[in-house]
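[job 4471] stage=fold_predict status=RUNNING
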Amino acid sequence: MVKAYNGALILADILLLILKILYYICESVYKFFVPAEEKSVAGEIVLITGTGHGIGKELALRYASLGATVVCWDVNQESNEETVNEIKKTGTAAAYAYQCDVSNREEVFSVAERVKQEVGNVTILVNNAGIMPCHTFLDYTIDEIKRIFDINVLAHFWILQAFLPSMIEKNHGHVVALSSLAGINGFPNLVPYCASKFAVRGLMEAISEELRTSSKGKSLIKFTTIYPYMVDTGLCKKPKIKFPSAMPLVSPGQAASRIIQAQRCNYREKTVPPFWLLCNLISRFLPDDALRCIIDFCDSGVEADS
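[job 4471] inference complete, writing structure tokens
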């Protein structure tokens, strides 16, 4: 009798699980055709790393135009000040420039404390800074590999440790991290870079799940991971594109617009352009040899730096 009762409970739980899965599938399909309304960022304090040029600079300018207070971090003080001066000329929002080597944990915590005292608690954090040396694997030096992981991965840990506590305390905030398509698929001449971007993906998935479970589902802090295709920022010194009209480099402005849209719509993951995420999901159902045929046909990536 007890066994039959327990069996009935298990069956009921399984049926409930199936119903929940079907519900969330339908919800996902609905959201695909009817995108979520973009939430306001006016009055939020947005900290962006790597704002001296490229995507980071465009993000700073666009968040400022939306009424957010922008905190700009870059190791290059001169270019960082130029970004802040451009924002100030528009008169749209307050902007602050801080020089910071994000790979240095002590410096991150020191500058973070200054930000808290001079600006306030950061509510939107965009970990954008990154480097991308392109060599064949055996041509990377020890220092290059360490530097890639210091900036592309460990910096995320130090910055999260500095700013996440205040978000948790207020149960309000959004963390955005830039991974890459190279954080979904491996590419030749980018082995350490790919490994670093795969690490960012794992970090974001794990910390999001940890907060969800530790708060028993009550955490309102959002996490968004972005996977850009090759962006024309100068990092891709020798891009290899077989079909440039169909697969052109993404401009920093285009990338910034997509990133901000993903953050404002609370997307958990987004590729730039968006179709790459669907392409990746479909490709994972293919046999390995079939997938390699597609990769060989597209023949895109980066050449090794000379």
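[job 4471] summary: The first strand starts at residue 45 and ends at 49.
[job 4471] exit 0
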